[in-house]
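Structure first, sequence second, as always.
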């Protein structure tokens, strides 16, 4: 609670600057991570994407019969 109280004691202009700085930092790191991924040769291949697709669980919809004993 002390952190929230300290945050609320800051002036609105300071809070806006801190929030904007966090947003700019996040956007910058998002852009730089793509560049670093390519330079370090960590881009997934088509085979990697296929294997990941096989591992992801899928949801199957099964229609229930009306009036069966399981409904009761």
């Amino acid at each position: 609670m002390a952190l929230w109280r300290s945050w609320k004691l800051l002036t609105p202009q300071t809070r806006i600057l801190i929030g904007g700085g966090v947003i700019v930092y996040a956007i910058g790191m998002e852009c730089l991570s793509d560049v670093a991924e390519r330079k370090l040769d960590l881009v997934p291949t088509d085979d990697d994407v296929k294997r990941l697709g096989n591992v992801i669980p899928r949801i199957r919809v099964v229609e229930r019969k009306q009036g069966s004993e399981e409904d009761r």
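Margin note: The first helix runs from residue 2 to 9.
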